[in-house]
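Morning!

As promised:
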Amino acid sequence: MTAGELRVVRAGALTTVQDLGRPGYAHLGVPRSGALDLPAFRTANRLVGNAEGAACLETTATGCAVRPSRTVLAVVTGAACPVRVEGRPAAWGAPVLVPAGAVLDVGAAAWGLRSYVAFAGGVDVPAVLGSRSADLLSGLGPAPLSDGGVLPLGAGRPGPARGADAVPHAGLGAELVLPVLPGPRDDWFTPAALRTLATGRYQVSPQSNRIGLRTLGPGLERSRDGELPSEGMVLGAVQVPPDGHPVVFLADHPTTGGYPVVGVVPRDSLAAAAQAPPGTPVRFVPLRGRPLTNSPTRL
Amino acid sequence: MSRGSPDGPGTAGPGARAWVARRAGAAGVLVEAADGKQAQALHAEVLRRRDEGSLPGAPGADEVLEVVPAARTVLVDGLADPDAFAAALSSWEPAPPAADAAGTVELPVRFDGPDLAEVARLWGTSPEGVARRLTATVFRVAFCGFAPGFGYLTGLPEELDVPRRATPRPSVAAGSVGLAGPYAGVYPRASPGGWQLVGRTDAVLWDTGRDPAALLSPGTAVRFTEQG
């Protein structure tokens, strides 16, 4: 059982190493980072017999190609795409044995945006603050893949993984539906703005990235002027910058921010947000939250 | 005691602190304090209760609690029961934390920054006067942000607030000591920045190969000393 390495044949538009991220350091200004589509990431690891937090590759739109130095069991989940091993078609969502020196090519996404490529043994780059994730906001962790680069592979079993579940293929969603729990700063917006959020036609902006899903659509008007002193930001926060266009914070989001957060998208819905390509229609669905004790009366 | 919000119902009586709790997602509460000092006291209290295992609504073993102080707020995220946390909060009256409760860090500084003369002019003193004032102040890390390991240091009186530079510098060297608004800070690594730079330290503010990686974390007391 040798560890080996992966040589990057084609890095693709943006391919990064990701695991479960580094939560717990937000108070030091460190983003949580980690795979954006966690269910797809976990499934990939399970299919090759890894621990659920082993580091995988996360591609963006155009896939990637790598050449392992040892025979390794690999799988592609997340965004559906053609998978080829040394030019021969292989199944998406099913473990495939990649012979030493063969090229595993993860094609462009036919549905979705981000594919996850897991290898038995995991991608074994050094951990930073307990995580191998590339954090594109603060630059922690490994740099994005580049053509010709080399990544260490962890030691893994060469044979097939234990019997794994079938991979659910997410349906072809015509639109991205994002539930929003109001607060903490919904009272910074006019009632008309909150109606606009609930009824407006938005779409995913091409400016979206691992930091945030930016939207294009009607702006949200504030009910008050002035600046908000910087405050802590949670994953899924729907922040509204001065241009009024909501931004949904994803894993590499800044830990504090000075623009008001009108509501928060529950974590379960963020995997779908991670798979929505630019142009996808977006609908925000405000949820009714019970007021907290000591909450402002308007909630 | 002023309340945190004009429409906040938290009136627990004279002398009581009124916190305004705002929902921040399914597991988070953003607590607004009346001012920065109360936010620091609340932050210390949340950490104390976390460490002794008595934080109401605390997360289960698989969840990670994030406690993020900021200018006037404390965000508590990862709670199993945010409603229980918010309800318990109303009776809390934490005392301000001791100045050195979270340890003291001394940072040797050469006071030769490119904005030292401008800060001296704004303060109505000499460059030496700026250095004397800064080395005589016990600062406290109110919160971190902007970049990993960047602490916002409070401790200067309000009348010494300085504006940010009209034009930020495209690159500020690691270790640069700057002032902006009510805060002092030290750049943990080279980055663009708009703070008024008064000096430079060789101390390493952020090193992921070190444990802890951050030299300054919220609550840490900081003293600047003059390096010849």
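Chain A has three helices and 20 strands.

Hope this helps with the figure draft.
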